[in-house]
What we know:
- By secondary structure, this protein is mainly beta.
- Helix content is 0%, strand content 35%.
- It has strands at 13-16, 22-25, 28-31, 34-37, 54-57, 62-63, 80-84, 92-95, 105-107, 112-115, 124-127, 132-138.
Amino acid sequence: MARDSGVSPSAPHVNLSxxxxxxxxxxxxxTTDGVALLVSDTGRTNFSTTSHPKGTIGTxxxxxxxxxxxKVTVISKRxxxxxxxxxxxxxxxxxxxxxxTTNGMVLEAGDSxxxxxxxxxxxxxxxxxxxxxxxxxxx
Length: 139
């Protein structure tokens, strides 16, 4: 099959609605996971939720989704912001299915962390004692 003559090759682009439909080319970067699109994120215009969920963690490992409202899986756009309650008497450990009170990222009372994992089923938490509070938001 012959190529259409007189037709320019098409490059990936985006139409800018704020600039009268001007087209700008997209670019990317090769990573070990594939190709990543280079973007400048402008964020959200408001909070992703009307409340800021708080869960209580004990010494049994749980998924973030298990402490979510209605115990549903939450898929975020960018990841999750987690903040340990400033009145916690112990620590909260965050990690994979292998997280334990001796393994994982430690949040002490008042500490926070942003994790760019977008599925709440893949974030595990365990407390060093009963009643450790954690606030979270999907971003």
